[in-house]
Amino acid sequence: MAYQKVNADQRAPGHSQYLDNDDLQATALDLEWDMEKELEEPGFDQFQLDSAENQNLENPETADLNLDSIQPATSPKGRFQRLQEESDYVTRYTRSAPKSNPCNFCRLLKILCTATVLFILGILIGYYAHKNCPSNATTSGTLDLHLYQEILKTIQAEDIKKSFRNLVQLYKSEDDTEISKKIKSHWTSLGLEDVQFVNYSVLLNLPGPSASSVSLSSSGQCFHPNGQPCSEEARKHSGQDLLYSYAAYSAKGTLEAELIDVSYGNADDLKRIQKMKNTTNKIALLKLGKLPLLYKLSLLEKAGFGGVLLYIDPCDLPKTANLSYDTFMVSLNPGGDPSTPGYPSVDGSFRQNRSNLTSLLVQPISASLVAKLISSPNSRTKNSICSPLELPNNDQRIVSMQIQTVTKFKTVTNVVGYLKGLTSPDRYIIVGSRHHTAYSYYGQEWASSTAIITAFIRALMLRVKRGWRPDRTIVFCSWGGTAFGNIGSYEWGEDFRKVLQRNVVAYISLHSPIRGNSSLYSVASPSLQQLVVEGPSFLSEALFLKRATKIEEMDPFFHLHETITKLSGEVILQIANEPVLPFNALDIAIEVQNSLKGDQPYTHQLLALASRLRESAELFQSDEMRPANDPKERIPIRVRMLNDILQDMEKSFLVEQVPPGFYRNILYHLDGKTSQFSILLEAWEHCKLLSSNETIQEALSEVLNSINSAQVYFKAGLDVFDSVLVGKN
């Protein structure tokens, strides 16, 4: 799981009883009793089919996120080795035989006959009792694959399609109230528990009364962001699309200046440009991609630029994608309500005046408008080779940009529902989707997200009505305000910070489930590298308007929707029911070593520390994780201790301060092409601009402290297990 630190502990007015601190403490006390009680009852275990040979094992945390069937680990028994009787037990502790006589012989014969009769009677009673008693399999701590399939086979494409179209009909509403009510009503009718609204009053940056424009000073030509000439006819033809081609939380106003092509805006690009030109108060022509947008904007701001025209180069898109005339929206908000940074937007909170989050005027434009601004032909493909858009170094363009936006406080609504866990209700698996928020730009793409999560809830609740429950609590969330910087989810996270930091096992996102119809990609935390992991391209920061017709063109029979729902559903079921977390300690250690490979100065000390981390992780993996994956050797309290350690081990790699747009988990790479620590790469980029190594020294210290913290964490975990084992013996 990717952990996000938030800084508040207040609750929303409609907080759930499952997230109440007092209730959680009581649950923790009851849990210890349930652990002992469950061990006395026979049940099924997914690793073996013979129910009579297995015990109910509870208090697991998370299951393997692998979409394939989980295979049991072969254990050498390690520290779970059962104590064997000593070979000289009989000779040391058996009394000497008494002298034989007829009375003693008769007495022994009677005892033997009685014992034989009782033994046979016990077998008969046990046989018929086991035969006639109902199985406790449906409440077992683990589910076999057969039960997974029983749940998932009820998911049908036609049901998802119907749900999608019903949601799209509500899109015409002026606000998201109708959609939120519909989702809440539907989830409640399916049987989900404690479905509620969680509302926050937040500051939104909305389009102005008229569309933004860009003009060429030399000719006086005025263009809308999509490349069409400024005219009333073009504005009416494009409708709301032109209004929603804007950068939320940008500075507003008018700027006329020289246009400077900065390509992707990395440190090398800026260093090259600053040697040739004065960049103060100029307008940057910036390509989206390769690095986080917020990071690139921070570099441009430091370089003195006054404005940015942002676009996507068609050469960075698949050949089948034609978005030359499409406009898009971006948000410059790193997350949450800008007026309450770091704390929740509940009633009575202090509100900061932050109508814009940058001094730059930022305007997204289409590739066709870029071609007009640099006098380039629209077609740049020759011999199947795409030529990137670029402004010649010797050419000078003076452009004028005008941006109009307004800021208003609006209510953002989250819909949250719960399926309480049976044996570990204090452990949460959060499943998140999103719904349409008023004034946002997502079109109907949100409807796919909501329809998929609703389809899984329907399948799950059909089984719940038959008496089954997952081990851990599943929290289903439909977030509002996503287009403006994940505002709804951030505020909820800040609101319930303390509970979530302690109890959340994993978060499964169904934010954008259908983006195309060619390949399947999955993204997971570094400790879950048994999954196929996709590196971000940062092109997804652009929010294109996807209409319902486009989504149905990609998936006319909704078979893709059905497949994604079933794959995601199997992941959720495994996480909610499997006994041992799939977080792999050794994979983290290997990832650290790989991130230090290459020609990187100042890393010798880090490599030595990474080697010690790997040794501790290997010992932890072999001595604790392998035995825990063997049903015959699991001890419930040790499994619980193990999962607690696995759940928090990636937190060692969270850092407080990172560059804008970067992940706080330093194990996350910026893309799939680079294996080095992202904060070290950024520090080197920073050094190129400032000719100082202070930043790189700070970054090296952050990495060193993280590796050392992880090594100490694993070692402390092993020491705890040793202490428990000694106490048991």
Structure, described:
The chain is an alpha/beta fold and 729 residues long. Helix content is 39%, strand content 14%. It has helices at residues 21-38, 89-93, 102-132, 145-152, 157-169, 177-190, 232-238, 240-243, 267-276, 293-302, 367-373, 445-464, 487-495, 497-503, 548-554, 559-577, 585-595, 604-628, 636-648, 678-690, 694-728; strands spanning 193-207, 213-216, 222-223, 247-248, 253-263, 283-287, 307-311, 328-331, 361-364, 381-382, 385-386, 398-403, 405-419, 424-434, 472-479, 504-509, 543-544. It has a seven-stranded mixed β-sheet with strand order 3-2-12-5-6-7-9. Helix 9 (267-276) packs parallel to helix 20 (678-690) and helix 20 packs antiparallel against helix 21 (694-728). Residues 1-100 and 129-143 have low confidence and may be disordered. The chain crosses the membrane at residues 108-129.
Which regions contain 5 or more consecutive residues with pLDDT less than 50? 1-100, 129-143
Widest sheet, order of strands: 3-2-12-5-6-7-9
Question: What fraction of residues sit in β-strands?
Answer: 5-15%
Q: Which percent bin holds the helix content?
A: 25-40%
Head-to-tail CA distance between termini: 35 Å
- Count of extended strands: 17
- Rounded mean pLDDT score: 77
Number of helices: 21
Radius of gyration: 31 Å
Structural class: alpha/beta
What profile does the largest beta sheet have? 7 strands, mixed
What form results from the Cα inertia axes?
A: globular
Key traits:
729 residues; single chain; alpha/beta; disordered N terminus
Task: Give a brief outline of the structure.
The chain is of the alpha/beta class and about 725 residues long. About 40% of the residues lie in helices and about 15% in strands.
